[in-house]
Each structure stands twice: as structure tokens, then as C-alpha cells.
Specification:
- It is a single chain.
- The chain contains seven helices and twelve strands.
- The protein has about 270 residues and is an alpha+beta fold.
- A seven-stranded antiparallel β-sheet has the order 2-3-4-7-10-11-12, sandwiched between helices.
- Strand 2 and strand 3 form a beta hairpin.
């Protein structure tokens, strides 16, 4: 059933996360991500994702998220693509939707979405995780979902996700941050866990090619019937103003400021 909420949670705040056992392949993947971040020009911040309370930070093998217990979904999800990842399709879609075991307060559940009229919309798309069976499986954690109208999830949002994979072939590395947008403290929610229905969803991209950086952003209303994602293209500065997050803050200011003021070489 659908209800309205003022955003007051009844469950305790997420105060820690449980580490997981990693295979050698997983360790190598994480080492590669650390090296990529270290090779980027750095300022005072150590990561490309927005600053967040460490208690809310969840690290899966191939993506990182900041979990919002009040909304029962991620504030944002961060991951990266390379041409090799995009082209190396070895894992099929698993559809193994399940609660996230690293969210110790309990993530959303499948029952929250049942008969709600909303899709379980991926933030980190399953189709971006086809390069590894673990990546594919973990993309179906419920912490990686937010309620999306069917026409949005299967229409304009899907088109944007497909375009991101095309863009990933144009860069050495394409960093992606995606999340829900809420314009007020009163919002629609679904299920017994009161999963918040966002007003819109954002996606911001940072592409690195040799020593050149490009950025672009999108904030798309979570409604049925939209077709052209280009209508909702924004700069990173505009996305930061609307979401309240500081994206790609580890870049040196002499790189971050100019690339975030304009829409980069994405076409």
C-alpha cells in the first residue's frame, strides 16, 4: 500500500558494516580501483564519491554506496566502467533480488515493492556488471534499488543507462555516481519498511582519457512517459546544487572547477 511519510524512521541508524571474504580476483579488482584513485590528481579528499558518514558507507566488491536508513535506499551509488568491462560480458542477468547483508539495520525487502506499482529500479545497472558473476549478483541487492515508475525505469532511464555504456568505450575510465532526488521532506513511500519514492533520479559522469577529464550530469523526473534524456542534461555544478552532494571532490581544483562548470565531450 502507498502512504505518505514525513521521513521519521522507526529503526536504528546504520552504525557499522560487516566485512566480506574476498577471492584473489576480488582483491585485485579493489586494488585496481585504489590505484586508479591514487593516479588522479588529489586535493584534500581521498575519494571520488561524495563525503558521507562512515557508518553509512557500504563497500561491495565492485561498487560503493551510502545507505540512507530513513529512506531505506542509497543516497548514491558509485562505480566505474572501462572499455574492457563493458565489452567483456561473461555473466547473465541473475534477477536474484535480495536484502543487502551489509546493511545491519536491514535494507528494503522484495515485499516492499510487491503490488506497489513501482519497479525495483537499479542505481548501479545490472547490465553494467556483466563482466563478472559476483558483480552481477551483487547488483541485485535491495540497497541498490529505488522505487521507479515502470515507464521511467523501462524507458528514459534505460535509454540513459545504455548510452552510458556507449560512452564508457570512449574513455580509459568512466566514473559513475547515481542516486535518488527528493525535493521536500514529505514524499510517497511504499511497503512496511517505508521505502521512499524519489521525485527524480540523478546520474553524474566523470570520464578520464589520458590526462583529459570530461563531465556530464542528468536529473530526470521519476514519472512515466519521458523519452529524451538529453532534455534533462545538467552540469555537475547544477547537479550538486540540486542534490547537495559534492561530486568528484578529490580532483585538484584547477581540474574540478572548469570541468564541473560545463558539459563535457559526451555525444
Amino acid at each position: 500500500m502507498l502512504e505518505y511519510s514525513n521521513g521519521n524512521p522507526n529503526r536504528p541508524k546504520n552504525i557499522f558494516f560487516v566485512p566480506q571474504t574476498l577471492s584473489m580476483k576480488n582483491i585485485i579488482e579493489r586494488f585496481f580501483l585504489i590505484v586508479l584513485v591514487m593516479l588522479l590528481p588529489t586535493a584534500t579528499k581521498a575519494q571520488l564519491w561524495p563525503a558521507t558518514d562512515s557508518a553509512n558507507l557500504i563497500s561491495h566488491t565492485f561498487y560503493t554506496l551510502s545507505y540512507n536508513e530513513k529512506n531505506e535506499e542509497a543516497d548514491w551509488v558509485f562505480y566505474f566502467l572501462t572499455p574492457e568491462r563493458t565489452q567483456n560480458k561473461v555473466a547473465s542477468r541473475s534477477d536474484n533480488f535480495r536484502p543487502d547483508p551489509l546493511v545491519v539495520t536491514g535494507s528494503a525487502e522484495l515485499s516492499d515493492y510487491r503490488n506497489s506499482g513501482f519497479d525495483r529500479g537499479h542505481l548501479c545497472p545490472a547490465s553494467d556488471m556483466g563482466f563478472d558473476s559476483v558483480a552481477m549478483s551483487e547488483s541485485f541487492y535491495m540497497s541498490n534499488m529505488c522505487p521507479q515508475y515502470p515507464g521511467f525505469n523501462r524507458g528514459v532511464w534505460k535509454s540513459l543507462e545504455e548510452q552510458v555504456r556507449v560512452w564508457s568505450l570512449q574513455f580509459d575510465t568512466l566514473f559513475v555516481i547515481t542516486g535518488p532526488v527528493f525535493y521536500s521532506n514529505t514524499y510517497l513511500h511504499i511497503g512496511k519498511n517505508k521505502v521512499a519514492v524519489p521525485d527524480a533520479c540523478f546520474k553524474v559522469l566523470l570520464g578520464k582519457k589520458d590526462s583529459t577529464y570530461s563531465t556530464i550530469g542528468f536529473i530526470i523526473p521519476n514519472v512515466n512517459g519521458l523519452k529524451n534524456f538529453w532534455q534533462f542534461c545538467v552540469t555537475i555544478d547544477e547537479a550538486e546544487a540540486k542534490t547537495g552532494f559534492d561530486f568528484f571532490g578529490s580532483l585538484d581544483d584547477n581540474i574540478e572547477i572548469p570541468v564541473e562548470e560545463k558539459k563535457g565531450e559526451f555525444n
